[in-house]
Amino acid sequence: MNKLKPSPANSCPLSPINFLERAAIIYGDCTSIVYNNTTYTWSQTYNRCRRVSSSIASLGIKKGCVVSVFAPNIPSMYELQFAIPMAGYVINNINTRLDARTVTVLLCHSESQLVFVDSQFSSVLLEAISMFPGNMRPPTIVLINDEEDHFDSHMEIITYKLMVENGNPEFNCVQPTNEWDPMTLNYTSGTTSSPKGVVHSYRSIFIITFDSLINWSVPKQAVYLWTLPMFHSNGWSYTWGMAAVGGTNVCLRKIDARVVYEAISRHNVTHMCGAPVILNMLANYPAANPVKNPVHFLTGGAPPPAVVVLRTESLGFVVSHGYGLTEVAGVVVSCAWKMKWNAFPAGERARLKARQGVRTLGLTEADVVDPTSGVSVKRDGLTMGEIVLRGGCLMMGYLKNPDATSKCMRENGWLYTGDVGVMHPDGYLEIKDRSKDIIITGGENVSSVEVESVLYSNPVVNEAAVVARPDEYWGETPCAFLSLKEGVRPKPKEGEMIEFCRAKLPHYMVPKTVVFVAELPKTATGKVQKVALREIAYKMGSMASASRM
């Protein structure tokens, strides 16, 4: 049998863009996209994507170049996740909360040839282009929503509407010649002096899309509400996944609790994703009523505090917790639920759900290792190490950054995530912190996540974030930033919150400083910007004169 070899019939490149044509055949008359009063079917979406693809191809851009999108979760944003690769280009979604200077850096670094921009962000894009170096040709602009008055008259402007109207509905999709061809480019958060552009192949995106659907048990014709930005790892692959199952994409330009609850009720939403901050927003909405039918909510990023999981599930949401990062294009570790756990008390169920869990089917291995020796840590739920991954959904590497790529994807065959975790005796993994967020006080490691979980259990706390504050005696100590729930009167004192923690935590883990804020600073994907909080804590200075507990 070893004489048998691959043939053209069985070695076609894997590609998720083919899901769209299949959806048009099977679910052609079914709703694909809903946005305000606009509704499309899968046949219409396929037709529109082919038209846009043909219009992009007619511009004469060399195949394999980068085409960027700067837009919120609107129908055109969804369509472009297919239309750009269908024309043979690499899609680059730009975070809509970035400033003009950062957008300039990313467009220059990626050498983007074309930018689709929603009119809401056109002024930011124009400012970004005005800062282009003289030796670089700015990308061509395609304006979404046709509000051309936002642009200088001397600039060449194309509109998305005209691309759809003038495009060829019979355009033949450009298939990848190799499944290792690059398909997506997404930039991670961090300094713009050395941007980290994560490149994924058609192969890795195909694998993670299938994996995400199976892992979350997404049924055919699910109704998916877009509370997760599509620019965040292409919506954790559910942009293509919804086409695979013929689901309905309910698009939202802006996220707030009232709009989300209205959309759930109006469209009978079955699934949605988002950072824990979205869970918190839904749980603390004063006018919230339990949803009529169960809504499956997949959350990732920082572990959701058990108390937030309990609040949200009491409103009818079925919360699943997963772990992933841009470098793996979606969720690759999830808290696979065991039926026997349903008999556990609510608090214990919530605690178990806050764990990240086990690798998904599409990932080959996940482990927690000593970052220096590479040896697996004890499976005791206490010994911390770095989370490492390997599998077919991993990125190809960082664009134009071989040093960062080799540092992350090491010769021993693992991707080092920079996340600190533990492995429990039952084989379930749990994140404890980002390595940069671990607080070392008096030689003891403090997980900011554990301290935050305790703070969230206080009934007056809306949001909590804990960072290190310099201390001449201890080196550094925990500093808590808190926002309070609406209507809390009187405002608690710093000492009250410290005493609350002291009753529930070892003394070295108790925050020595508590700062009350109106709202915690966040990234566009809902993650708390701990970098900004650390700067504030650093400026507050040392606590040498504070109580040495």
Automatic annotation (TrEMBL):
Superkingdom as given in the UniProt entry: Eukaryota
Alphabetical list of Pfam families matching this protein: AMP-binding, AMP-binding_C
Domain AMP-binding enzyme C-terminal: 450-527
Residue span(s) of domain AMP-dependent synthetase/ligase: 21-399
InterPro entries named in the record: AMP-bd_C, AMP-bd_C_sf, AMP-binding_CS, AMP-dep_synth/lig_dom, ANL_N_sf
GO biological process, any: phenylpropanoid metabolic process
Keyword Aminoacyl-tRNA synthetase: no
Molecular function, one GO term: (E)-caffeate-CoA ligase activity
Alphabetic keyword roster: Ligase, Phenylpropanoid metabolism
Recorded metabolic or biological pathway in which this protein acts: Phytoalexin biosynthesis; 3,4',5-trihydroxystilbene biosynthesis; 3,4',5-trihydroxystilbene from trans-4-coumarate: step 1/2
NCBIfam families per UniProt: PRK08162.1
Family: Belongs to the ATP-dependent AMP-binding enzyme family.
Protein name: 4-coumarate--CoA ligase
Species, as recorded: Penstemon smallii
